[in-house]
Amino acid sequence: MNTVVADITYRAMLGRKRIWLLVLLPVALVAIAALLRLLNGESEQTAVTLMKTFAIGTMLPLLGLIGGTGVIAPEIEDGTIIHLLSKPISRPVIAVTKFVVAASLIAVFAAVSTFAAAYLLTGTESGVATGFTLGALFGGVAYAAVFLLLGVLTRHAVAIGVIYALVWEGVVGGYVPGARKFSIQQWAQSLADQISSSAFFSTEVTLGFAVPAMVIVTVGAVLWTGQRLRSLSLTGDD
Fold first, then answer.
1. In which element (H, E) is residue 99 found?
2. Residue-wise pLDDT tens digits, 43-84
3. CA-to-CA distance for 208 and 213, rounded, in angstroms?
4. Name one Pfam family in it (predicted).
5. Nearest to 47 by CA among 169, 137, 129
6. Which residues contact 114 (CB under 8 A, 6 or more apart)?
């Protein structure tokens, strides 16, 4: 990891309009939870539903898209990546550094807001808040790697990422039984289910499958990103 590249990337991410998108979704989650608490009081079932459908099912992949593509795709699009590639820094180090920045931003925004929203609705009951926070944390890391890779594979990363997040993760991965094993959202929920003892929550994907799959996808995507950066020439063409 290169600290100079990390510092520049953090400042770029936190100074762009993307920071408002990173903030907006978590704030919306907490606001919805506060409203539901005001209207219905504490409710474990409501907490689980909100965590599954919005926190893990909608917010997390979109944060992954914003963070994962945001740390590198704009630099490729405007050509400033050439300046970075001209420096004596290995491509794998650049890939790892960009991944760490994306993963840390997603983890902070996703995990903190998930815990706050779940805690508002159910406190520490049945481990719902802790479980979904853990799921958001590790799921966010996996999404960061996948969307980082997407950012170096195509100049249409955002459009393709939105389709992936909403169609595959939100619809196919959420409702088609056979596809659930290949959904990061479902892996994150599997982690949450392992911690939570809620009667309102269960998952089909086993932890024994979810954890190795998450590790393989994360590591594989970061390594592939490094290799892809090797293929970029200093003129900006493959």
1. helix 91-122
2. 889 999 999 989 998 899 999 999 999 998 888 887 788 888
3. 9
4. ABC2_membrane_2
5. 129
6. 29, 51, 55, 56, 59, 129, 132, 133, 135, 136
Taking all residues of the chain, what is their mean pLDDT, rounded to a whole number? 88
CB 194 within 8 A of CB 206: no
Beta strands of the chain (E only): which ranges?
A: none
Instruction: Quote the DSSP letter at residue 177.
Output: G
The residue whose two tokens read 């950012």 is 151
Per DSSP, 205 falls in state S
Core vs surface per residue 195-232: b (16+ CB within 10 A) or e: bbebeebebebeeeebeebbeebbeebbebbbebbeeb
Number of Cα atoms under 13 Å in the Cβ half of residue 21: 17
The residues, ordered by sequence, that sit 6+ positions from 85 with a Cβ below 8 Å of its Cβ are: 91, 94, 229, 232, 234
Confidence of residue 128 (pLDDT cuts 50, 70, 90): very high
Question: Could you tell me which residue, 135 or 87, shows the higher pLDDT?
Answer: 135
pLDDT in tens, 211-222: 999 999 999 999
Query: What SS3 state is found at 154?
Result: coil
Written as six digits, the tokens of 29 are 């989650």
Q: What is the dihedral of CA 189, 31, 116, 18, to 10 degrees?
A: 80
Does the pLDDT of residue 236 top 60, yes or no? no
What residues contact residue 83 under an 8 Å CB cut-off, 6+ apart? Answer: none
